[in-house]
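Issue: ligand-bound run for WTA - logging full I/O for the record.

Environment: standard queue, default settings, no custom constraints.

Inputs:
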Amino acid sequence: MNKPEGTASNIQSTLAENRLFPPPAEFAGKARIDSKRLTELRAEAEKDFVSFWAKLAREELNWKQPFSVTLDDSKAPNYRWFSDGKINVSYNCIDRHLATHGDKPAIIFEGEPGDVATLTYKQLHAEVCKLANGLKSLGVVKGDRVVIYLPMIAQAVIAMQACARIGATHSVVFGGFSAQSLRDRIEGASAKLLITADGGTRGAHVVELKKAVDEALAGGCKCIESVVVYKRTGKPIEWTRGRDVWWHELTEKASATCEPEWVDAEHPLFMLYTSGSTGKPKGIQHSSGGYLLGAHVTSKWVFDLHDADVFWCTADVGWITGHTYIAYGPLSNGATIVMYEGGPMTPDPGRFWKICQDHGVTIFYTAPTAIRALAKMGEQIPKRYDLSKLRLLGSVGEPINPEAWMWYHRVIGKEKLPIVDTWWQTETGAILMSPLPGATATKPGSCTQPLPGIFAEIVDEAGNLIQGNDAGGYLVITRPWPSMLRTVYGDNERYLSTYWSQFGDPLTARAEKRPLLYVAGDSAHRDKDGYYWILGRMDDVLKVAGHRLGTAEVESALVAHPRVAEAAVVGRPHEIKGEGIVAFVICKGERPTGKEAEALSRELREFVSKSMGPIAKPDEIRFTDALPKTRSGKIMRRLLRSVAKDEEITQDVSTLENPGIVDQLRGRA
Ligand code: WTA
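Outputs:
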């Protein structure tokens, strides 16, 4: 990991932000949690965080068999929560609402072409059971892995819930990922079955998911026995007899009831591949009971869910936000969610606001990149729509700059609605830091404070807690929490080394009864009021339009091209996307220049887009004869970041193996 770099100027900018927005009185008056309740919850958690979570788990979830052990830390940091309890996540998200909310809409789906379908809790129950029975008929049993590669359609949630119902562990692969990425994830999970669609529509294009599946499976993936295909577009597709099964044929005769499989609370509900600083993406493995508790409680608290709410989280189910705040958390609370298949600009940049208007959205949760892109289109666009039902706004996935926050507040929130800036990660399973909208005064750009039951700190490079406020450094979580990741699928060593070993060996710390620190990988600043400001990643993880990518993945995609000898990839601030990708490339043979360089640059950008997916396409490629390396052979990424930004070079380049290369990198030689 790098030193907390560039923080000084960021800290300056966050210190300059001293606007404070108290929760609107009307909102606070009706909120589930007001400031008094928040203080009580914090005090309870502080006194005994284990009992705090045990009480919530008993009150908020339905258990088939109650747990007697709340937290087992004997194998820390492989913590186990509620380990002798038995539960089913799908039962908690659907069945328990049937008696009181059976006819309430669970999912309001809108396709990009404009088709709308509503599923009540009863209908959702029937669809989930039919698919669950269908999966069983194809031989899927508890513990099997199922890969889901679908567009943003209601069937994605049905598929996830069906897996949960029968105890199969799902691995959702974002529909924007390429065949190659899909193959890696299928093989990584040794999945038995894959669920996909004939296609989906996004940005007025058909996304040919089935074609990517065929390509992925042609090159291996012997583990896959069946491919279930949902008919979404009706466009012709290739068909492999004996392997491919239509979803509608599989489910048409299946029973609409399916007894849930009661699993141990620690049973893996899903894994989700995410990028780290090195090597291939890792399968972050989550539990059933602890994960659901985090998803449920944070949905209820942070989004202040009430019975009449219509909740729309615009994330894709392929990312953690779509898991926790589409497929699980809101449903566990019996809420109505909106799902939208397509792009924000199709057919025009009013689409999001039209959806809010048409479906009476009350809570809107999106990413800063979308806010910036929509803000750029001008405020007359949202003004054309009736957004009067909105009562709460949320932001997630990357730091929100104060300008974007203020636009959201002023133009969408009409200066009245609270904004919850929620900080969390694939690994944390659920929101860890956020304002509570009826209790916390907000500051534009700050995720404010940890939720009750979550203990965050800032440490220096040696892992020492920095006491008091006005502190900058590494963000760590000092006590375990129920929705935390359990391991990296198939690679517990990587789990230990990535998240727990930065400040010493966790197993030694455990033996010596010292606290273990979960290292989030973000740098943060805590201001004088104890508010946290996330400054960004300290490793080589990029956030491009809210999508998490590793520089190492893009580099290995580049070196797979026959002309590329070596590549180094860095992020560069981008007005809309938050971060854009710049690649420094050494070619085999002569360094290309002029027209040849232009053509090759285009070719390489397409090549990455094809092999990883369009989200990973570099903004710029710079050809060079060498990369800046230290004498020990480490690429100086920090220097490359400055070069990519066209900044003055302030770093010491005297340790460089090849100091002359800097001018070439900057395009001056
Ligand atoms: C960043 C997304 C600032 C952070 C839920 C984190 C944020 C990474 C925020 C995890 C926020 C997420 N403010 N930064 N509100 N939310 N991040 O796994 O760098 O896709 O470590 O999870 O996103 O990304 P992931």
